[in-house]
Amino acid sequence: MPHPLFEKHQTLLQQAVAAIEARGYWSPYAENPRVYGDTAIEDGRQAFAAYRGAQFYLDQPGVIDRGGAEVSPYGLPLDISYPRCSSDALIAAAKSAMPAWIKAGADTRAGVCAEILARLNARSFEMAHAVMHTTGQALMMAFQAAGPHAQDRGLEAVAYAWREMKQVPETALWEKPQGKNPPLKMEKKFTVVPRGVALVIACSTFPTWNGYPGIFASLVTGNPVIVKAHPTVILPLAISVAVARQVLKEAGFDPNLVSLLVDDAAAPVAKDVAMNPEVRLIDYTGGPDFGNWLEEHCRHAMVYTEKAGVNCIVVDSIDDYPAMLKNLAFTLSLYSGQMCTTPQTIFVSREGVKIPDGVVSAEQFGRDLANAVSQFLENPARAVEILGAIQSPATLARLEAAHELGEVLRASGAVAHPQWPEARVRSPLILRVEASDERAYMEERFGPITLVVETATTAQSLATAERVIREQGAITFAVYSTNPLIVEHAEEAALRVGVALSINLTGGVFVNQSAGFSDFHATGANPAANACLTDSAFVASRFFVVQSRRHV
Description:
single chain, 552 residues, alpha/beta, Aldehyde Dehydrogenase, Chain A, domain 1, 2 domains, seven-stranded mixed beta sheet, five-stranded parallel beta sheet, globular
């Protein structure tokens, strides 16, 4: 008999599989706040407020003590404590929970995962407030990115994995003709077997959007998951783990299939846990140093990383110059550049930007871009809803130091938040640097930092951007040109270095946005990431197929 949760969500799963094959727009989770009810925002705020100054309850094994030192980037004290558990105890409990989860089969696991996502969706505004006050995202961005968009990414991973598992039949009758003799007959049974315990090492800026793909890809393929939250951003994943454990328990499974691992900056545990030979899958989002270390040292596990890169834009020519500037102003301002997709380096040739009325010099383009950002952010009340707050003091320090890298076209400054006077809000810094000053632009500078690099020609811009991406990696690449040959060269460069390309964005779509079920986030083909969120390769290596056979 099919599990009730599979019957409940079977149509949704089929629709999700159809969506990843069609690659058009589709989402089962509403991004319109009104759909969640008139009181949803306030209800979410109250749910979040109840966590503050309290102990977060998780009935997990191996509790050593309690930890947690989250501080809101908006200046709000959180004072939430979480159970700090022995990683060995979590691993042992996860392994004990596996047999029944394996026997349940792909359909049941997919149904349970879909139910977890449905429960998370119902609590999207609770999650929004939790993400806002740990990552610094503004409330509406936190709602969309950590709520429905993250849930899209989770379901997308479930759909890919479910489709891959369902391509393996559960049984088969094998008959081999033997001429005049009776045929040889065998009954064969095929079982999807998980790789083992999975570790998800989450980031501090998009804990659910970047975390859910790995969590759900591993869980649906039969692997128990230990979620290692970033020590400054625990609450969103604690809520996610609590919801998952509750659904698993109600569905008749051991809740220790999903658990939360908490540490602190003074005593990090991720490296030790990752090196445990019982950990067979690792998903990581964060800086390149630790990501590279995981790839190099964790040979016992399948390691999926999304690290940092230097996202580039080449500006050559455009039909609608003001629309391009407006698009770029939003792109550079959104969440203060604290996105792995935000462009950092903009290449423009000294020959200028060709527009219908003539040519805009490279120098003028830099000034126009700076002015466009300033105009876009001139209303402080509106600005803070776009900029959000700076998540980490390290990003603030990096921003201050960056002023020395080149000629300041637009200085970064503090923006007063009308509701949160202690919020760490900063506007974008825009600098002009020469193409010869590779020290400035050949490394990632995470945060609201943009470098306008002047080259001799657009051909040099394309060649330099390609070299930057090849050596440093990138998640996104963009080109502005009305010349079909330039666009063709940009497309060819993007194929060579394996990066997603956006062409002449002037409307309501921005290079740093990625749509679930349609866009492939990262490619795994350049140093910024070794995996794609999401494709078949992201899920297929998380399980094996084991067969048994007997004569009929």
